[in-house]
Amino acid sequence: xxxxxxxxxxxxxxxxxxxxxxxxxxxxxxxxxxxxxxxxxxxxxxxxxxxxxxxxxxxxxxxxxxxxxxxxxxxxxxxxxxxxxxxxxxxxxxxxxxxxxxxxxxxxxxxxxxxxxxxxxxxxxxxxxxxxxxxxxxxxxxxxxxxxxxxxxxxxxxxxxxxxxxxxxxxxxxxxxxxxxxxxxxxxxxxxxxxxxxxxxxxxxxxxxxxxxxxxxxxxxxxxxxxxxxxxxxxxxxxxxxxxxxxxxxxxxxxxxxxxxxxxxxxxxxxxxxxxxxxxxxxxxxxxxxxxxxxxxxxxxxxxxxxxxxxxxxxxxx
Length: 318
Fold this sequence. Notes:
The chain is α/β, with parallel strands linked by helices. It has one domain (50-122, 133-147, 183-317): SGNH hydrolase (Rossmann fold, 3-Layer(aba) Sandwich). The chain has helices at residues 2-32, 38-45, 59-62, 67-74, 88-101, 136-142, 151-154, 164-174, 198-204, 215-230, 244-248, 253-267, 294-311, 313-317; strands at residues 53-56, 78-80, 107-111, 234-239, 271-273, 286-288, 291-292. Strands 2-1-3-4-5 form a five-stranded parallel sheet, sandwiched between helices. The chain has a two-stranded antiparallel sheet with strand order 6-7. Helix 1 crosses helix 8 (164-174) and helix 4 (67-74) packs parallel to helix 13.
């Protein structure tokens, strides 16, 4: 019996050490990778961004606002932090981590649309966070989400179970077999896609939409603006174009927009509302109701750059 217990103990120790080693190999591999999702996080944690201008938002940032165009027209160094699938609570976490490891920006373009003030309830594409679970800001927010196992934080390599695609990325990067890249430029990737009305038609066949306004997220949004005001960081809130039939179908659209107007007045930060811009009436510029295609995104980026320039805020802050 004693020999059996010793064997069990040795096996447990060996398994634990192996798990720690495997976890460390994967994390080091991910930290070398420029694969989609890891590129931005790695650049943030490695203090490699340090931009004048940060674009903060969801997928309506990363596929719709081109840093190349902003840099060219505004003479700035910008970076797009758009997080696919996440409203403001996770956008705010990413920004706080950015400021922890990089110099603060002079200007933030904050996407402020009908989905911004929701809360992320379940994780989306959660594997992007696995190498960075040690970060307190991120860990605290992820623990609030349904379906994100607490075991991910306490058992080494547990988070990678059955995620063979992510395991392969970590291994090939660690051992130098292949360096994985993506086509993003400073976080932006225009979408060469044609209009698809499938999802919109499903929505329009039902009752009118009501955008969630989560009081805690409204408070966090206020917290970011207050932080920026106190640290001399200029903010421009932007409601980007979306196809007009989608905005018209949203019952409380004006209520959401009024919140942004109230923040604009409170902090004296501009709010640029493109919800009725000419782009919104032409599906040529969209690939679905919520997202501009590359052609539309680059027209919008040019228009946004000129509008920001006309505000005169760059002369004060740059």
